[in-house]
Amino acid sequence: MTEFQPRVFSGVQPTGNLHLGNYLGAVSRWVPLQDQMPTIFCVVDSHAITASFPNAQELTDATREVTAAYMAAGIDPKKSIIFNQSQVREHAELAWIFNCVARMGWLNRMTQFKEKAGKNKENASVGLFAYPNLMAADILAYRATHVPVGDDQKQHLELTRDIAAKFNNDFAERIKELGIGVPNPTPSPELPEYLYFPMTEPMIAGPATRIMSLRDGTKKMSKSDPSDLSRINLNDDADAISKKIRKAKTDPDALPSEVDGLKDRPEADNLVGIYAALSQSSKEAVLKDFGGQQFSAFKPALSDLAVEKLAPMTDEMRRLTADPTEIDKVLKAGAEQASAIAEPVLKEVRKIIGFLDVR
Ligand code: TRP
Fold first, then answer.
1. 202: enclosing H helix or E strand
2. CATH code at 142?
3. Is 176 part of a structural domain of the chain?
4. Atom of ligand 1 nearest to the CA of 9
């Protein structure tokens, strides 16, 4: 190879229901990438057992549901590889090797681990600590060059680059000798002349696409929030959507006419941001239409828009989940395509390391 083949990889965990934040911040942004380069979208079930093992049936169901959500949102199995992580053994194998590349000190800095483990660090699973190494393995088993994620994943992508750089450096001689490296596209003193793993480009969704809780505009919309009113789930029906928007926290003032006026008004900012994202316009444009109006007028408009945009998708999700065999077929074909890429990569990685191959 003379250069890395451009390739997108991303994933969502099958834990609980997908919500509006996952849709607007991630999946909906993946759809146009399918026409730009090869794309792989993974349902990361091996990541879903790191905090604790979910109920087995719920994990199975959630895996199918996330797959249905991908497809209902417009991820097309004819254009993209869609599969669940645990079906492709190479993720686990490469993650083990990366456990031996990444340093304790690097992982000790991960803010997501600190947040998730909380005060009870001694009782967190080793898997939760090593989670970012598995994420690096997901990406690099395909030598993926582009990874679209939300800004909460930025630190994990930096770690992925650190792992790739250390591997490329530690095995530089070997990679060159075996003739399986790719000329470094951006020569620098920090990296050797030939790379085995690409230095993956993050494609980070800016804070504008960060969807916050409907009950607290300073907290991210999250599936783990105990209040269901805090989020719009992708399987909520029209009544639930309008009820949640009607009950969304706001302040007593009218909407401003300029974006500047949203400063220090996190709930107003969030609702305007959701309107802008759903209508594929901007906060400026939304405020041009709604500036000066009260929430009593804005909320019904937002609710109509949300129902209009989400209903076709939720209907399609319901149709797809009603027939698991169809979903399982997509995942099976996807796992085969994914394996066809990852297997030869791991074969080369074993050779680079010097594992004796006798088969
Ligand atoms: N950690 C990501 C999240 O919680 C999910 C994920 C796992 C992922 N592996 C990945 C995202 C690889 C992008 C690429 O959102």
1. strand 201-204
2. 3.40.50.620
3. yes
4. 14
Distance between CA atoms of residues 47 and 44, nearest Å: 6
Mutate to test the pocket of ligand 1, among 15, 22, 47 (most ligand atoms within 8 A of CB): 47
- Report the alpha-carbon distance of residue 191 to residue 186 in Å, rounded: 9
Ligand 1 pocket test: pick from 142, 149, 151, 155 the residue with the most ligand atoms within 8 Å of its Cβ: 149
In the structure encoding, which two tokens stand for residue 284, read together?
């400026």
113 lines ligand 1 (CB under 6 A): no
* pLDDT tens by residue, the chain, 359 residues: 889 999 999 999 998 788 999 999 889 999 999 999 999 999 999 999 999 999 999 999 999 999 999 999 999 999 999 999 999 999 999 999 999 999 999 999 999 999 999 998 999 999 999 999 999 999 999 999 999 998 889 999 999 999 999 999 999 999 999 999 999 988 889 999 999 999 999 998 766 678 999 999 999 998 889 999 999 999 898 999 999 999 999 999 999 999 999 999 999 999 999 999 999 899 999 999 999 999 999 999 999 999 999 989 989 999 999 999 999 999 999 999 999 999 999 999 999 999 999 98
* Same domain? 316 vs 346: no
Q: Whose CA is nearest to atom 7 of ligand 1?
A: 135
User: pTM, whole model, 2 decimals?
Assistant: 0.94
**How many structural domains is the chain composed of?**
2
Residues 139 and 287 placed together within one structural domain of the fold: no
Q: What is the residue range of 195's domain?
A: 8-207+323-353
